[in-house]
Specification:
Order of helices and strands: HHHHHHEEEEHHEEHEEE
Radius of gyration: 18 Å
Helix content: 25-40%
Number of domains: 1
Oligomer: single chain
Shape: globular
Number of strands: 9
Strand order of the largest sheet: 4-3-2-1-9-8-7-6-5
Largest sheet: 9 strands, antiparallel
Number of helices: 9
Mean pLDDT: 80
Low-confidence stretches: 1-24, 26-55, 261-270
Distance between the termini: 20 Å
Structural class: alpha+beta
């Protein structure tokens, strides 16, 4: 049951920690979160929203594609979305990410839970409520940011700010046809290189060249076909290609569940 799951998650991830997590997502892309109507994020004042550049975000094509598009609109009943996860590099592995759309609210927003990787690689993320867009990419980015922090010692907030800035200015958005199960489907491709030209990465050229790719398509439930964060090989420096990739794998119907009693009211943080 969702109720027991919520209690289990609360035991493993205190409400204070959940509040910090949600706040970091708001920090990552505050204007876009507001566009998406992400009620689970910490509320901000009008002055704070204006200072964060809400108006600019509304005009940014990448922000529109990722945040103000209701990717979860094509999900009308509880399902589990499964994504294949691949890490490329010396410590490479494959795994699965599951996103459970547990509850469909009368206004069309969703209550979403995550099972991010398994075994020693598993990372817990709290459930999110009130979403129209698909938050799996925000969780992917938070995971990516924390890994870069651990590798370089540079604060996660700095990486979040650079990614946020790249979404608002500098991202490339294209309409393309992509292969899905042997057929071509229309898709929106968003790419960005948020660390290009950063002097602090003069000794870390792979991170400076790191690119992010988001492939969005209404042809798959949840609207996200692929997410990738990739660093190119640099043979002259003995550096192999590295990166992480999330690819939509399938969808499975779930039985309807009662609303979790442990969840804070919509529009508030735990």
């Amino acid at each position: 049951m969702v109720e027991s799951s919520a209690r289990s998650h609360a035991d493993r991830f205190p409400r204070s920690s959940a509040r910090v997590f949600l706040a970091t997502l708001a920090t990552l892309l505050l204007p876009a979160a507001l566009l998406a109507g992400a009620a689970a994020l910490a509320p901000v004042s009008a002055a704070e929203a204006e200072a964060a550049g809400t108006a600019n975000a509304a005009e940014a094509p990448a922000a529109k594609a990722l945040f103000s598009t209701p990717h979860l609109a094509n999900i009308t009943h509880p399902v589990t979305l499964t994504y294949a996860f691949t890490r490329q590099g010396p410590d490479g592995f494959t795994d699965i990410v599951r996103e459970d759309i547990k509850i469909i609210h009368p206004d069309g927003t969703k209550y979403v839970m995550f099972n991010f990787l398994s075994g020693d690689h598993h990372v817990f993320y709290p459930a999110l409520d009130g979403y129209r867009g698909n938050p799996v990419f925000m969780v992917f980015l938070e995971h990516d940011v924390n890994e870069m922090r651990d590798e370089t010692g540079i604060a996660a907030a700095w990486y979040r700010n650079r990614i946020r800035a790249a979404f608002l200015d500098g991202a490339e958005v294209k309409q393309e046809k992509v292969n899905l199960g042997g057929r071509e489907v229309p898709a929106t491709l968003v790419t960005l290189t948020p660390f290009k030209g950063e002097e602090r990465f003069a000794q870390l050229p792979q991170i400076a060249a790191k690119s992010y790719r988001f492939v969005l398509s209404d042809a798959v439930p949840g609207g996200i076909l692929e997410i990738a964060a990739e660093m190119p090989a640099m043979p002259d420096q003995g550096l192999p290609a590295r990166g992480e990739r999330l690819v939509f794998q399938g969808v499975k119907d779930d039985p309807p569940e009662a609303a979790p009693q442990e969840t804070a009211p919509k529009g508030t943080t735990p």
